[in-house]
Design brief:
single chain; 5-stranded antiparallel β-sheet; globular
Length: about 400
């Protein structure tokens, strides 16, 4: 018999979000209207940049192909100071990222460092004109910080991608110290997305037989304690939308290695469903989108009112179809208008826009860096800029990761 999941209330979730922003201490001081604008910006980035979709032009001086009306700018290079006369040297192997509104119309872009035993998170602060005004470290001494996710209450969840990896909650404005959140599980984390309507967090696992997880905070939005569950897909989503049931994990924080070795989270519930390398994940308008790289698939999960839900396939690459230009699916983000932007790990180094009908349109392509991967795609709060990194740069060996900004001309 399937154990019943602990549900989360739908009523008043958005109202409670604003209350949480006001009382959390994790955001800047200001009026309630300011907190409300912050929440809306984090939950629903604009899509002004996507109005310029069209055929890609020739590579520019940075080696980036773009549609007419868009420009590219190099923001940071691994190992070098960010901006003019700024002390913070950009970290190696930049990976997952997100943006956060800042006072006086500026914003902050945060980026993970996927380095073993010496990873962490860096941040770049922009003013209202989009100029870099400072850069700094948010988290140090962690390992293989891959992707993660932004929260509606204004923090960044940085995910460690190794068997003993945890999720770290960081304040982009550095008003609070980073906090390790082991209740979200100890496993090879990839990314996390928050469903603010139902109060769940969804997490992907980058293993060939990884799982999809759901976390219900005991006292949303506090992530210190809660229930971690694993998904069982009942049916074949390739044939028809399939029901998803959730099972509590017996031991969300197994200690791996040594004489005290325990069963990894993904193997604790025999009926749970394996996914071939979980990658990016994001929430939009009540739906969860995530990717799996082993089968080049973009999934869509629709949560149900009773705690279960339905899983369908938005896209799966078919090598026999030349129109399937998206391969090596990895990081993703979702525009306010609902399009899913997927970055390629390898492939032909594109960011591809996927609409609800499954149509594919390239937004950009990085030329001459075929051994790298695109990561950290994130809109600025006004939707007129997009940030991303080429993790290993032209050689594919690093440490010359490059972080770019795409903007409306």
């Amino acid at each position: 018999m399937v154990e019943q999941s602990r549900g989360a209330p739908n009523q008043g979730r958005r109202r409670f979000l604003i209350q949480a922003l006001a009382g959390s201490g994790l955001v800047m001081a200001g009026s309630l209207a300011s907190w409300q604008r912050l929440a809306q910006a984090v939950l629903a980035p604009g899509d002004g940049l996507l109005r310029h979709l069209g055929p890609l032009g020739e590579p520019d001086e940075l080696g980036i192909r773009l549609p007419a009306g868009l420009n590219a700018r190099l923001i940071a290079r691994s190992g070098e100071p960010v901006g003019a006369k700024l002390g913070y040297r950009w970290h190696l192997y930049p990976d997952g990222g997100a943006t956060f509104p800042a006072p006086r119309g500026g914003w902050i872009y945060v980026s993970n460092s996927e380095v073993p035993a010496a990873g962490g998170v860096g941040a770049i602060r922009f003013d209202a004109r989009g100029e870099v005004i400072r850069a700094y470290s948010l988290l140090e001494g962690t390992s293989l910080n891959c992707a993660g996710g932004a929260t509606p209450w204004g923090t960044w969840l940085s995910c460690e991608e190794w068997s003993g990896g945890a999720v770290w909650e960081c304040d982009p404005r550095r008003r609070r110290l980073p906090r390790r959140r082991p209740a979200l599980g100890i496993f090879k984390h990839e990314a996390v997305a928050v469903d603010p309507d139902q109060g769940y967090l969804y997490l992907t696992e980058d293993e060939p037989d990884g799982r999809l997880y759901r976390f219900t905070p005991k006292a949303y939005p506090d992530l210190g304690d809660g229930l971690l569950e694993v998904a069982e897909v009942q049916g074949d989503p390739l044939v028809a939308p399939a029901a998803v049931m959730w099972h509590p994990l017996p031991d969300p924080m197994p200690v791996l290695g040594g004489l005290g070795r325990k069963t990894p989270t993904r193997l604790q519930v025999p009926q749970s469903t394996a996914f071939r390398g979980g990658e990016g994940i994001g929430w939009h308008a009540g739906r969860i989108y995530f990717t799996t790289k082993g089968d080049d698939t973009v999934w869509c999960y629709q949560p149900g009112a009773a705690g279960s839900g339905v899983l369908s396939v938005l896209y799966r690459r078919d090598p026999a179809r030349p129109a399937d230009i998206l391969s090596g699916v990895d990081n993703l983000t979702v525009a306010a208008s609902g399009e899913v932007l997927v970055a390629e790990d390898g492939g032909d180094m594109q960011v591809v826009v996927l609409d609800e009908a499954g149509r594919l349109t390239p937004l950009l392509q990085v030329v001459g860096q075929d051994r790298s991967e695109i990561a950290g795609i994130a809109f600025s709060p006004d939707g007129r800029r997009l940030y991303f990194s080429s993790q290993r740069g032209p050689t594919g060996k690093g440490p010359f990761g490059l972080t770019y900004e795409i903007s409306v001309a």
